[in-house]
Design a protein that fits this description.
Number of domains of chain C: 1
Structural class of chain C: mainly alpha
Helix content of chain C: over 70%
Distance between the termini of chain C: 38 Å
Chains: A alpha+beta (505), B mainly alpha (75), C mainly alpha (371)
Oligomer: heterotrimer
CATH topology of chain C: Amino acid/polyamine transporter I
CATH class of chain C: Mainly Alpha
Order of helices and strands of chain C: HHHHHHHHHHEEHHH
Number of helices of chain B: 3
Number of strands of chain C: 2
Shape of chain C: globular
Radius of gyration of chain C: 21 Å
Number of strands of chain B: 0
Strand content of chain B: under 5%
Helix content of chain B: over 70%
């Protein structure tokens, strides 16, 4: 594909030939020739569009019909011939999104997005009309972030639909959408949304700057963009959040954050993203405050279990047996008697097996998947215990760990947890509890050094902010959510004024 | 023997880690080099069980008499 | 220097609190008990009072030389030549401090938890984390300490609440049997370990965002007081539960103390978890000694980036932690006889002198401008 825009000549035949050449004579390019009748002459016109990308019925009714079935256009209606294009643009073609293009390449590029290009004989410019009407998935429930109570709509692969879904929720004129194109070959549409007056403009500018530095062939999913624009390359912890739910995006925008929508994927990126936000789920705000607080606490507890329990098991049974209550100690030692491996090897075998089963369960055809994952773990685990390869307590440890890791709402964070688990296991096997302390220390240091688009990753716990604690583990009632998180919302700190009590006087 | 190899290995690792950031600063490079050499030398000496002078002895030489009299004063 | 991290007043408070508890809580109760017997806790309180006076001195010194690290203060007060020599002595002092604290930590973990692991590995592993933190910068360390504080407090509260039922107040009697002199000496040793090392924090005082405002000063006093009192509380518990003789004879009496925790006869011997407490505080202390050492040395040598020195200094620290205390007898002797005058000179006499010089210079400048 050529990068140099060719100046358009005025001859229609040249245009048609050139357009076919530029698309390498692809057979899904439709070339529709027609004529526009003026008072004393007719002007040849041609439509270009790609089969399947456009809504054909709309083309017939909104472009071809006005062009062909119109009463004869008089010269005086439009003045001189050069204004014919403007006349068509302004008064004839009954379409919404229409603009002129000056080079064949840009006209061709717009065809790729489902536009129709109209060119007239004798004119150096053409008209590009948005007529996208391809088949796409309907709006369905989110696949990963389901809720018991709350909206059940999820984003689709169409960026316009997604942007509209967000606008439907935040009916505020200050909700700004800016378009970018990323990817040399895929020319993927990327839209950035933020709320003017709440979000810090510098975050948007930084996002725009980083998007501008991406120079790659293809953007197929939001994760490509995520990897290009994230702050730190060498960390297992995510610094950019993604979500399928429009209500999560709207809530984030209201906090003062910035959303990045990418055409072709329902996963929308939200920046900046902090550690504590990966433990917040949309549901927390749709249930009562007290239960949400407890469940949040449960999530952090789940984080603790998922990361540390195998390592603690290894450390305690290998180095610190005195901690185990006597009865448990006796049954544990009885179990571990027949086992030939040290606790560390046992744990590694079980964890590795579990990871294999888990990954296999994802790839399996649906019919077989369920059976393999559940029964597999149970049967294999049970069989392994009977064979004396691992002890029963190890199975319990691994199962609890696995289940606890699903408590974490965001998938990206649970990946980080899975990886750090192995890190802790290794340290525990070598240095016992001391190793675990060292490991915790290393991870805390690492977390404290991260930033997400300029905001320290561990805010509001890292640099401690008292008023922001209302949404970390606690989820205080909506009445008390008076201010926005100070990390993002400094421009417009208050959400609500003092709300009156509903109690009778 | 292995310990000495390990020490040299660690010293090499440290140098590799620091080298790229130091390439342009002559003075920093020199200071790093000298410090690294000293540290490696002392570590190897300790690994080979050579007696290394204990800095606490030097401090004790200065302050011990004072300390004794202070203790006597308060006992 | 290339570490532009800033810390705010609250982070400084957390820092001072954990730093003053530092290794104090590990080693001091035994020293206090051997000097003052069952009045060890009174000695601790005296130490806290002395400590408050010291903090007063340090804040005064900070006020006289605003925005300067210790190296800067020495050079400004005594001129380039003598000032550099003095600051080199301080660099040496923090080097010794780092090596000795590392020894305490690895020794503690060696004896009680990892007896079969060569001490070199434990030392190196701990040093690794210290270096990692220092390289990442002051902001990272400060945020990490804020993250660790809740855990420290939870564990500390667990410690105190689970041990309180086992108190035997008879062990406190007779009160004040040792007399004023022993108590005072105990107080000096206490403040020597808890408060006098605060002089090293001069390498980070200039980084405090707000500078020395009234709020920051109050926070400093409050957290130093809290730190000292926490150690006094632990000492008190040691005396009340273990008794003065055992406390005086153990090397790590606070550890022997937590061994006694028994919740419902089910959860027992959980001292490993409480070792996490000491891990946090000693980590803070080692990190700041080390950080102070490396940054002061880079300041003297006018290096572009303090990180250059981190790795060689780490190696030196580990090696010397294996050299400094050849055996326990040497350690006891050095800690009780050599250390007190050494630290009083470094952390009281010299800062006092520097402060007076600063005052004189200040008044001289004032009178010069008046003319």
């Amino acid at each position: 594909m050529t990068d140099i825009s060719s100046k358009m000549s005025a001859s229609l035949e040249t245009h048609i030939e050139r357009m076919k050449q530029l698309t390498f004579w692809s057979e899904d390019l439709i070339v529709r020739k027609t004529r526009i009748w003026l008072e004393d002459r007719s002007i040849k016109a041609v439509l270009f569009y790609f089969d399947g990308l456009c809504d054909e019925k709309l083309i017939y009714s909104s472009i071809l019909e006005p062009l062909m079935n119109r009463p004869v256009l008089r010269e005086e209606d439009g003045g001189e011939a050069p204004d014919l294009l403007d006349l068509l643009l302004e008064s004839v073609l009954t379409v919404g999104d229409i603009h002129k293009f000056g080079s064949l390449e840009s006209g061709l590029q717009s065809l790729m997005s489902g536009n129709v290009a109209v060119m007239l004989d004798g004119f150096a410019q053409g008209l590009s009309i948005s007529m996208a009407g391809w088949e796409q998935r309907a709006i369905t429930e989110p696949t990963n972030q389901t809720v018991i109570r709350g909206p059940k709509e999820a984003f689709t692969e169409n960026i316009h639909v997604n942007a509209a879904m967000v606008r439907k929720i935040v009916k505020y004129p200050g909700l700004v959408l800016k378009n970018h194109t990323v990817g040399r070959v895929t020319h993927t549409n990327v839209s950035v949304m933020y709320i003017q007056g709440i979000a810090d403009e510098s975050v948007y500018e930084e996002v725009a700057r980083r998007l501008g530095t991406i120079d790659t062939d293809a953007i197929l999913e939001s994760s490509y963009i995520e990897e290009f624009i994230q702050d730190e390359a060498y960390t297992i912890f995510p610094t950019i959040q993604n979500t399928e739910r429009p209500d999560s995006v709207a809530a984030a925008l209201l906090e003062g954050r910035v959303a990045i929508l990418i055409d072709g994927t329902p996963h929308v990126l939200i920046v900046p993203a902090l550690f504590v936000q990966f433990f917040q789920a949309a549901e927390d705000y749709y249930h009562r405050a007290d239960i949400s607080t407890l469940i949040r606490g449960l999530r952090y507890f789940g984080l603790f279990i998922a990361t540390l329990v195998p390592a603690l098991y290894i450390a305690i049974t290998t180095y610190h047996q005195e901690m185990i209550p006597t009865q448990l100690l006796m049954s544990l030692s009885a179990q571990r008697e027949g086992v030939p491996f040290p606790a560390f090897v046992e744990a590694m075998i079980m964890e590795a097996t579990y990871e294999i089963l888990r990954e296999a369960g994802v790839r399996m055809p649906r019919a077989v998947g369920q059976a393999v994952s559940i029964v597999g773990t149970l049967v294999i685990g049970q069989a392994a215990v009977e064979a004396g390869i691992i002890s029963a307590s190890m199975i319990i440890v691994v199962s609890i760990t696995a289940i606890a890791s699903y408590v974490i709402p965001e998938f990206d964070m649970s990946i980080a947890v899975r990886i750090s688990r192995f890190f802790f296991m290794g340290l525990a096997a070598a240095f016992g509890m001391f190793g675990i302390f060292i490991g915790i220390n290393v991870i805390l240091l690492h977390l404290s050094s991260l930033r997400s688009f300029g905001v320290p990753y561990m805010s509001p716990v890292g640099p401690f902010n008292f008023s922001d604690q209302k949404d970390v583990i606690l989820r205080v009632s909506q009445r008390s959510m008076k201010s926005r998180p100070s990390m993002f919302g400094k421009l417009n700190p208050f959400r609500q004024r003092h709300s009156r009590s509903t109690k009778r006087p | 023997m292995w310990v000495v190899a390990g020490i040299v290995g660690i010293a090499g690792l440290c140098t590799v880690i620091e080298y790229s950031s130091l390439k342009n600063f002559k003075k920093d490079l020199w200071v790093f080099g000298i410090a690294m050499a000293a540290a490696t030398a002392i570590s190897i000496a300790k690994a080979l069980n050579v007696t290394i002078p204990n800095p606490l002895d030097w401090i004790a030489a200065w302050f011990e008499p004072l300390g004794r009299s202070m203790k006597r004063m308060f006992d | 220097m290339l570490d532009n991290g800033k810390i705010n007043g609250r982070q400084l408070m957390v820092l001072i609190y954990l730093y003053s508890i530092g290794t104090t809580v590990l080693v001091i109760p035994s020293g206090l008990a051997s000097v003052a017997k069952q009045d060890a806790w009174i000695g601790g309180i005296v130490g806290v009072i002395i400590g408050m006076a010291l903090v007063l001195l340090y804040t005064a010194l900070w006020r006289v030389y605003p925005g300067k690290t210790f190296v800067g203060i020495c050079q400004e007060a005594l001129g380039k030549g003598v000032g550099t020599v003095l600051s080199l002595i301080y660099v040496f002092y923090s080097f010794i401090g780092a090596a000795t604290v590392l020894f305490y930590v690895s020794n503690f973990f060696l004896i009680h938890f990892l007896p079969h692991t060569p001490v070199m590995f434990t030392s190196s592993l701990f040093a690794l984390v210290v270096v990692m933190g220092s390289r990442m910068g002051l902001e990272t360390i400060a945020r990490t300490s804020e993250l660790m504080l809740p855990w420290f407090i939870i564990l500390f509260v667990v410690l105190v609440t689970t041990l309180t039922p086992q108190i035997d107040s008879q062990k406190l009697l007779p009160v004040f049997e040792s007399g004023g002199k022993s108590v005072f000496w105990a107080g000096i040793t206490f403040s020597g370990t808890a408060y006098m090392p605060i002089v090293f924090l001069f390498s980070i005082f200039p980084r405090v965002q707000e500078g020395l405002t009234g709020k920051v000063r109050l926070g400093l006093f409050a957290s130093a007081l809290a730190g000292g009192l926490s150690v006094v509380l632990v000492t008190l518990l040691c005396i009340l539960i273990l008794g003065p003789q055992i406390t005086a004879r153990s090397m790590f009496p606070s550890y022997a103390l937590v061994k006694k925790i028994s919740i419902g006869h089910f959860i027992q011997r959980i001292e490993v978890l409480l070792a996490g407490l000491w891990f946090i505080t000693t980590y803070m202390k080692t990190t700041y000694y080390y950080y102070s050492w490396v940054t002061s040395l880079s300041e003297i040598l006018k290096l572009k980036n303090y990180r250059t020195l981190t790795l060689p200094c780490a190696m030196l620290m580990v090696v010397f932690s294996l050299i400094v205390y050849p055996n326990v007898v040497y350690m006891q002797h050095w800690d009780t006889i050599v250390f007190p005058p050494y630290i009083i000179v470094m952390a009281v006499v010299i800062p006092l002198a520097l402060w007076l010089i600063g005052l004189l210079k200040g008044s001289k400048d004032l009178s010069a401008t008046r003319k």
